[in-house]
């Protein structure tokens, strides 16, 4: 059954869509929805064979005579969209030594040319159909699978038929010529180069240690330069013919369409497909095996020390068992839940020790079935210092305690309450589960060889298992998790000589004393016992804002709220609190505390409650507490549910009224910042992460990434001195969007945010503090210490900011999309110089400066001048002549579909209206939103390009390897890598 032990994976929020206009590309008349091979109600569908997991009746399953299997279902989220996944049961583990990288190369080649798509036509064709490349149209290759993904907006029967035809042509009949292989290999090598560097080397070295003797040890999907460089049409075709055959394919489709129509199109376009040659079974992936002479009670095997000077310390060891297919039964899933419970108990104890100032920054245990190669229990942690042995001993002592003594009933009940809220929320939100996630669920289930279950089934199995859980049973599962055939370990460190293989082996073989001090004692904490925020406030003004049924409520203390109560997304409530002036209120010498605030402010607690006690309060509830410092405001954000909304609002208000100042989160955030800092120099993307915002804001010290010296000098006392007055700033705006009782929530707001002491708005000098843009001129150069073939380049122009010209900002996004398409074509398709160049328009709407349009790419050092030349050429062309109709439509149609589907979700409206109580002009501007994105004529876009590109020289940044210059000629002197 899918997603039991994986229940706590975070899924990205996918906004629903209502798409507007039919597309010009139509297929031949579609067949009537009359599939021939649908599993009947009295038949066991293929995914449930050998399983007693109750069937999810919303899915319809079929299996064709050629062996291809499919699953389809009706789903209206987003409206008028269908999500299709085509999964090939072949990844990098299916490659021979000479074929490394071929599975991923094929993923690329299928998009290059196929039966119904000429060379280079795949991306433009999907764009004309309204699909955005990279999000709506994509693919991925893993060690065990290759999956092609398509999310089709504004669907109808003709578009479905056309899209299924195109997909079938890609999968069944790609053109694998020498010419196409030769054209695509440089793009794959560009992708490999961008991924390369210290992190990739460390990951590959660790994988070789942990999977020694198995195919997974040296088969990463990206492949090798040698095997990719030797690829030919014939050699890639041989791999394709071996694995791309209907017996190895599963198609899943979920969307706003008759599922029988979905099934009929799959059968029509894939039903007559036959594989070439005899069927080839998958190779043996191998088993983890202990070395001869290992102690069966503690079978420590391969150990490795990986030295990478620019990476922070990280330690992984794993208890490994052979992976075997299982019968996905209810009993099996009950066991997975008990395993998950055992892990959660240990992880809470490990986190408690880290919060209290332990010897490690973080530590976690996790069981995973890795690429059908091993059943593993991982222990991952980051030592705070070079004393890795102390951290290892601390963590092993916590695990030893879990292996020696059963947990308390109170600990078990707490974790079960956390599980329950997750499973209940999934049931509550079943109606709004997005189609892309549902289609992915089938693919994931097939990959791990498990069935698929409805949320109600998951909750039912949990409830039946819950009554059987005893401390002794949890102990039994804990011991099973830490028993295996071999134990392997890999330690990544920046320091040569800090550890040896023998020292780590000795540490793992040495008996460890159990330490129960990390167990969290039961403590009764209730919201009923917490102090009120203050005297409930009075409502001064309440009424509609004129958009949908959204209301505004103003309280007498100056707090203003925007509320939209609706049932579009059952079980979900989004809450956002905006307060103060954001970065405008940060002084030049406070950048280190601005940075630490992101990591430590929430953990510092509320009143007398520290983070542990706040966690206790959240048991069995769905809370969130994200914090950001924005350009014009500080924000709290949470996704919660109606049952927990009152308490969520109390927590946010209490953080402003009575913040806590526990010093431990500050110390931990300082340690994390110091550990991360040196790794920024490991590659160009790290330098960009460290320096780009600072440079693009004219070296404004508020946006500087703190150095280790700055972090060392920071103190908890000064942290409080900076943040305490910031938390008292106004104005305060609260947005609540989702399924909730409006009147009850207004009353809660009156008792929480309405009860705050009146806040003072910062003076005009602070509110109007400008954000500078760097002067153009000589190219700014930064240096990294990574691979000599890696570089990055940025070209940027200043744009606008504020609400007054918000409509222009939307049109600039259209222009940026046009720029992005052309730059992609120039740098990736033609030059093979960059895998994923990107152009972005950033227009901060709650401040009056700081906007920019930036083009960015990672590439080879010798291609930096090429990037600058191509980007400037494109900018000039956009300013000199309007774009053609087809190019315009290929940008506007995906934007139209994105806005249309996003606008059916609560978050879309929340993001559009945040700040409206400060500047009410946001509200009337909403009426132009779709038109600004989709009806701005090419001549107007040309005028924008003239205004922003032709009127000023671009600012340039190059990030190149230490010891090189921009021309990559003679080495320079001191490269200043620490700049």
TrEMBL record:
Q: Which organism is it from?
A: Erythrobacter aureus
Keyword terms, alphabetized: Hydrolase, Metalloprotease, Protease, Signal, Zinc
Provide the GO MF annotations for this entry.
metal ion binding; metallopeptidase activity
User: What domain of life does the native source organism fall in?
Assistant: Bacteria
Q: Please give the SUPFAM superfamilies that the UniProt record associates with this protein.
A: LuxS/MPP-like metallohydrolase (SSF63411)
| Assigned protein family | Belongs to the peptidase M16 family.
Lineage start: Bacteria, Pseudomonadati, Pseudomonadota, Alphaproteobacteria, Sphingomonadales
One GO term under biological process is: proteolysis
Identify this protein by name: Insulinase family protein
Transmembrane residues, as ranges?
none
Domain Peptidase M16 N-terminal: from-to ranges: 78-191
Keyword Mitochondrion present in the record's keywords: the answer is no
Instruction: Report the leader peptide range.
Output: 1-27
UniProt-listed Pfam families: Peptidase_M16, Peptidase_M16_C
Q: Where is the Peptidase M16 C-terminal domain?
A: 232-416, 715-893
């Amino acid at each position: 059954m899918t997603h039991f032990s994986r229940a706590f994976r975070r899924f990205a929020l996918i906004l629903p869509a209502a798409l507007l206009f039919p597309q010009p590309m139509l297929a031949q008349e579609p067949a009537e929805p009359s599939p021939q091979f649908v599993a009947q109600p009295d038949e066991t569908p293929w995914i449930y064979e050998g399983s007693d997991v109750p069937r999810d009746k919303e899915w319809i399953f079929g299996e064709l005579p050629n062996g291809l299997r499919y699953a389809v279902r009706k789903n209206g989220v987003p409206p008028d969209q269908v999500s299709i996944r085509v999964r090939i049961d072949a990844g990098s583990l299916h490659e021979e030594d000479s074929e490394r990288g071929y599975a991923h190369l094929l993923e690329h080649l299928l998009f290059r040319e196929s039966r119904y798509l000429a060379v280079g036509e795949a991306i433009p064709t999907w764009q004309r159909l309204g699909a955005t490349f990279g999000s709506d149209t994509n693919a991925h290759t893993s060690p065990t699978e290759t999956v092609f993904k398509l999310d089709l907006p504004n669907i109808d029967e003709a578009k479905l038929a056309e899209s299924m035809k195109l997909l079938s042509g890609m999968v069944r009949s790609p053109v694998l010529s020498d010419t196409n292989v030769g054209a695509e290999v440089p793009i794959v090598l560009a992708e490999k180069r961008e991924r390369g560097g210290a992190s990739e080397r460390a990951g590959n070295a660790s994988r070789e240690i942990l999977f020694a003797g198995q195919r997974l040890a040296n088969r990463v999907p990206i492949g090798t330069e040698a095997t990719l460089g030797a690829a030919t049409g014939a050699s890639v075709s041989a791999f394709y013919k071996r694995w791309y055959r209907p017996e190895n394919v599963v198609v899943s489709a979920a969307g706003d369409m008759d599922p029988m129509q979905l099934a009929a199109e799959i059968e029509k376009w894939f039903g007559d497909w036959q594989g070439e040659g005899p069927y080839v079974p998958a190779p043996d992936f191998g088993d983890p095996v202990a070395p001869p002479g290992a102690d069966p009670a503690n079978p420590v095997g391969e150990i490795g020390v990986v030295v990478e000077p620019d990476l922070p310390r990280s330690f992984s060891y794993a208890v490994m068992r052979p992976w075997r297919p299982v019968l996905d039964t209810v009993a099996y899933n009950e066991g997975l839940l008990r395993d998950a419970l055992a892990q959660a108990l240990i992880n809470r104890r490990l986190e408690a020790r880290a919060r209290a100032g332990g010897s490690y920054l973080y530590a976690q245990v996790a069981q995973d079935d890795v690429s059908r190669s091993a059943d593993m229990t991982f222990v991952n942690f980051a030592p705070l210092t070079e004393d890795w042995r102390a951290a290892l001993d601390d963590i092993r002592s916590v695990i030893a305690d879990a292996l020696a003594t059963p947990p308390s009933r109170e600990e078990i009940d707490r974790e079960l309450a956390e599980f329950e809220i997750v499973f209940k929320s999934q049931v509550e939100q079943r109606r709004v589960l997005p189609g892309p996630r549902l289609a992915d669920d089938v693919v994931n289930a097939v990959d791990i060889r498990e069935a698929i279950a409805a949320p109600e089934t998951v909750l039912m199995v949990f409830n039946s298992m819950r009554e059987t859980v005893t401390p002794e049973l949890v102990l039994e599962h804990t011991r099973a998790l830490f028993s295996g055939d071999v134990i392997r370990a890999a330690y990544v460190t920046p320091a040569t000589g800090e550890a040896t293989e023998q020292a780590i082996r000795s540490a793992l073989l040495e008996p460890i004393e159990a330490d129960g001090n990390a167990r969290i004692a039961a403590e009764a904490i209730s919201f009923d016992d917490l102090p009120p925020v203050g005297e409930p406030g009075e409502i001064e003004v309440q009424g509609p804002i004129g958009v949908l049924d959204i209301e505004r409520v103003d309280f007498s203390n100056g707090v203003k709220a925007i509320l939209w109560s609706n049932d579009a997304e059952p079980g979900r409530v989004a809450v956002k609190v905006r307060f103060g002036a954001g970065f405008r209120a940060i002084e030049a010498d406070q950048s280190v505390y601005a940075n630490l605030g992101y990591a430590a402010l929430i953990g510092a607690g509320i009143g007398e409650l520290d983070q542990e006690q706040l966690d206790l309060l959240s048991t069995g509830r769905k809370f969130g507490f994200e914090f950001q410092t924005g350009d014009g405001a500080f924000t709290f954000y949470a996704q919660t549910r109606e049952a927990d909304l009152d308490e969520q609002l109390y927590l946010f208000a209490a953080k402003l009224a009575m913040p806590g100042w526990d010093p431990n989160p500050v110390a931990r955030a300082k340690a994390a910042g110091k550990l991360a800092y040196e790794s920024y120099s490991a590659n160009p993307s790290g330098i960009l992460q460290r320096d780009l915002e600072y440079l693009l804001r004219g070296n404004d010290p508020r946006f500087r990434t703190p150095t280790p010296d700055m972090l060392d000098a920071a103190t908890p006392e000064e942290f409080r001195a900076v943040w305490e007055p910031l938390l008292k700033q106004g104005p305060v705006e609260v947005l609540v969007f989702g399924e909730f009782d409006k009147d009850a929530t207004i009353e809660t707001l009156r008792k929480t945010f309405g009860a705050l002491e009146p806040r003072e708005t910062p003076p005009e000098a602070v509110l109007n503090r400008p954000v500078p843009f760097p002067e153009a001129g000589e190219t700014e150069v930064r240096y990294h210490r990574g691979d000599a073939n890696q570089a990055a380049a940025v070209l940027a122009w200043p744009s606008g900011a504020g609400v007054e010209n918000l409509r222009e900002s939307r049109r600039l996004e259209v222009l940026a999309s046009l720029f992005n398409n052309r730059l992609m074509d120039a740098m990736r398709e033609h030059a093979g110089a960059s895998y994923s160049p990107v152009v972005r328009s950033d227009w901060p709407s709650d401040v009056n400066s700081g906007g920019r349009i930036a083009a960015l790419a990672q590439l080879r050092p010798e291609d930096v001048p090429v990037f600058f030349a191509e980007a400037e050429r494109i900018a000039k062309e956009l300013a000199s002549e309007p774009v053609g109709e087809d190019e315009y439509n290929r940008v506007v149609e995906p934007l139209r579909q994105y806005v249309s589907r996003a606008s059916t979700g609560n978050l879309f409206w929340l993001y559009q209206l945040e700040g409206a109580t400060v500047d009410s002009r946001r509200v009337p501007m909403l009426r132009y939103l779709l038109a600004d994105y989709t009806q701005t004529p090419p001549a107007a876009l040309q005028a924008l390009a003239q205004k922003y590109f032709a009127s000023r020289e671009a600012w340039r940044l190059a990030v190149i390897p230490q010891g090189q210059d921009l021309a990559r000629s003679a080495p320079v002197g001191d490269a200043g890598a620490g700049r």
